[in-house]
Specification:
alpha/beta, Ribosomal Protein L13p, Chain: A, globular
Length: about 150
């Protein structure tokens, strides 16, 4: 008996649509990360891009629990003394609220070349509109998976 290893010809990608309205950020990010890696498939192979293409809409309406609203994201401008920070709540209320979801998913993937490739299969939109209707994505109802996924 041999261990099954998928080849590029065996890979079958689907398009998944997730509505993030009212969902808890960490739980949503872990579901998206698993879908991007392909861990939900029986043919999962760790060194291949097995995952689906994921579309997330309503990223601005994602929920943060506890003290996570005040957690800071840091970055450096490259100049001396150029460290800057914003809280998650400020980013959600700002110009690019989809970055909170993107960073949460990115940090749940391993830090290597393959995960950077898998991140290109993620599309996040702040509102309800997205330009991927032609791919006819399947709707994944994350709220019904577990009652803790949605924050009322």
């Amino acid at each position: 008996m041999k261990t099954y290893t998928a080849t590029p010809a065996d890979i079958e990608k689907k398009w998944i649509l997730i509505d993030a309205e009212g969902l808890v950020l960490g739980r949503l990010a872990s579901i998206i990360a698993a879908r991007l890696r392909g861990k939900h498939k029986a043919t999962f192979t760790p060194n291949m891009d097995m995952g689906d293409n994921v579309i997330v809409i309503n990223a601005e309406k994602v929920q943060l629990t506890g003290k996570k609203r005040n957690e800071h994201y840091y970055w450096h401008t490259g100049y001396p003394g150029g460290i800057k920070s914003r809280t998650k709540q400020q980013i959600l209320e700002g110009k690019h609220p989809e970055r909170v979801v993107e960073l949460a998913v990115k940090r749940m993937l391993p830090g290597n070349r393959l995960s950077r490739k898998q991140m290109t299969n993620l599309r996040i939109y702040a509102g309800t509109e997205h330009p991927h209707e032609a791919q006819s994505p399947e709707v994944l109802d994350v709220k019904s998976m577990n009652k803790k996924n949605a924050r009322v």
